[in-house]
Amino acid sequence: MKNSLTAVIYLEPDQVSLRIIELPKGRVINDVHSGALALGSGKIANYAQNMAAIVNNLDGFKQQLKDCQVQDVHFYGAIEDLAPIDARYVADQLEVRTGFTIHWLNNNQLMAKTMGCVVNHLTEFKALSKHCLYLLTLGLDSMTLAFFHHGNFEKQWEIDLGGAKISRLVQRLRQTTTNPQEIIQDYISSKLEYISPELKRKKRTVLLIQNAPVLSNHYIKEGEHLAEIPQEPLKRANQTLGIKINDQQPWAQDVTTEQEQRLVVPNYLVIARTAYLVHPLSIYVTDISMMDGLVNGFADNRAQSQINTMIRTSADDLAQRYGVDPAHKNFVTRFALQFFDQLRPIHRLDNHARLLLEIASKVDDIGNFINQESHYRHSAYILKSNPLIGLSDDDNQIIAEVARYHSAESPTAAQEHYRQMDDDIQLVVAKLAAILRLVDSLDDSRQQKISVIKLKLTDDHLLKIKASANDDLVLEKWSFSKKSQLFNDVFGIKPVLIERGGH
After folding, report:
1. In which domain, by residue range, is 47 found?
2. Are residues 322 and 426 in the same domain?
3. What is this structure's pTM?
4. Less CB within 10 Å around the terminal CB: N or C of the chain?
5. Same domain for 283 and 344?
6. How far apart (Å, rounded) are the C-alpha atoms in residues 104 and 95?
7. Taking 70 as the threshold, does the pLDDT of residue 134 lie above it?
8. 292 forms bridges with which residues in the sheet?
9. 67 CB burial (10 A radius; 0-12, 13-18, 19+)
């Protein structure tokens, strides 16, 4: 394969960066970062107010791209707490002023890309995660804690403990109290304690810290990407560490800017409290960054597969947490994917839509945890409150709405939630919901009577579904007669269920 150059530009609330890599090996040709961008006093993502500085840096990046003769450029932005309408305004201004089209990524997408990079490219990861490993990623708006067991991702929690948020609380408290330390520690504890019952505390647990540049710059040697950090200062941080930086912290001399000063101690307190809860045998810091995760998607063909595995694992974890019947879940998922694959000529959706159908099949019944009556509405509510790692906001909305319409309600103009969806996802929701509702009816008894299904599209606009069953399908036929209408409405094809004897 001929070598080629690809550039990734990444806009964060506090900086904008450019990295040029040579493919296929991913060798870094150029790696530059802007000066610090001012965080907002309201929203953390202060892009509109920083527009002049951002455009100035992008213009500088343009010259570097020209000098290196790079044609393939990808521009990403961390959406953080930016409202969707504001994100559109910022994107439009950036395109008008620079010609770059930005692709916004939410925290779950960034985390999945970065965790995949850590798993595949941190040489020591396999050994560190041999038993139990927690990966703590610090952020401005929130922090993420992910759990790996025997090297495999199992679950993750996004927690409202961003460094910028805590820093603001510190500033407010300083105006009302002389020593806000105790309040801050209680605040951090209150945010973390709710996940404490879910944390596994093993003797061989490792805590790995990510996105902590002050710590990684201090401890990690040149040419390496990992370093162990001492635990004693962290233990003291739960007891005696003040809000201000002092000589007790070995990294104090590495804090050079006012913005770092505001963020570093809140982040350090979060690390300390997390360590207290998981009781790690050892603590490490890595300098693998969000930018590394973005670039990894172009240099490593395993990246998307790794992310898809995380998405599926998160969906299975959510289904287990809300008591979904695993046998019914597996039945629906298996046959929904079969229907999708064999009906490609009529739905004309891509493999990403197939993944969304798979995830919706796993979690469509989680609303039963709240109430069986109108459980599909409860499912949608839970899914909107628990976006899955690795998926965009549109993807999570599609899954939630497919779950809403998999049972009784139909995606029509009369439905408020359906009307409010963007035009480009309405049809996807309708098609996936029609398939899922049809398959769900085939196990209405929750007894998995059907073992084999064969599909046949006929010239007279029928879909013949030949089902081999080990028991009568009286309930399934009744449910099918009600739920098949949506499929007919969406595709203009009438499904017909034909029962065959079991094998």
Report:
1. 4-105
2. yes
3. 0.90
4. N
5. no
6. 13
7. yes
8. none
9. exposed
Tokens of 318: 């959510």
CA distance 55 to 61: 10
Between 238 and 298, name the one with better pLDDT.
Answer: 298
**What would the pLDDT profile of 150-184 be if each residue is shown by its tens digit?**
999 999 999 999 888 888 887 777 777 666 677 88
> What are the φ/ψ torsions at residue 223 (nearest 5 degrees)?
90, -5
Asked if residue 218 lies in contact with residue 251, where contact means CB atoms within 8 angstroms, the answer is yes
Report which secondary-structure segment, H or E, holds 303: helix 303-321
Which residue type, as a one-letter code, is found at position 33? H
Contact predicate 102/77, CB 8 Å:
yes
Exposure class string for 173-200: b at 16+ Cβ within 10 A, else e: beeeeeebbeebbebbeebbeeeeeebe
pLDDT at residue 503 is higher than 50 = no
Q: What mean pLDDT, rounded, does the chain reach? A: 89
- 24: tokens are 């296929």
Q: Which residues of 8-45 are buried (b: 16+ CB within 10 A; e: fewer)?
A: bbbbbbbbbbbbbbeeeeeeeebeeebeebebbeebbb
Indicate whether 162 and 245 sit together in one domain. Answer: yes
CB 398 within 8 A of CB 363: no
**What phi and psi values does residue 143 have, to the nearest 5 degrees?**
-120, 155
User: DSSP of 57-125, one letter per residue?
Assistant: HHHHHHHHHHHHT--EEEEEEE-TT--HHHHHHHHHHHHHHH-PPEEEE-HHHHHHHHHHHHHHH-TTH
Q: What is the CATH number of the domain that holds 99?
A: 3.30.420.40
Give residue 206's identity as a one-letter amino acid code: V
Number of domains in the chain: 3
Distance between CA 403 and CA 303 in Å, rounded? 28
Structure tokens at 198: 């879910």
For position 171, what pLDDT does the model report? 78
Q: What is the mean pLDDT of residues 253-259?
A: 65
For the chain, count helices (H), then strands (E): 20, 14
